[in-house]
Amino acid sequence: MFPASRFDGRHADAVPVRLRVEHHDLIVETADGVVLDYEQLGHVVVSEPFDHTPRLIGLPNGITLEVYDGDGGLTGALQQAGVRLPLAVRLQRHWLGVVAILAAFVGLLAVGYVRGLPAAARWAAFLLPPRLEHRMGEQFLVVLDKHHFRGTRLEPQRRAQITERFARAAAAAAPGVTYRLEFRAAGKNEINAMALPGGIIVMLDGLLNVVEDDEALAVLGHELGHVVAKHSTRQIFQSVGVGTLAGLLWGDFSGVAASVPVALGVLRYSREFELEADDFAVMLLKTQDLSAEPLYDFFLRMLEEEHERHRADIPIFLSSHPSTKERLERLHQRLYEPSR
Ligand SMILES: [Zn+2]
Question: Is the pTM higher than 0.90?
Answer without folding.
Answer: no
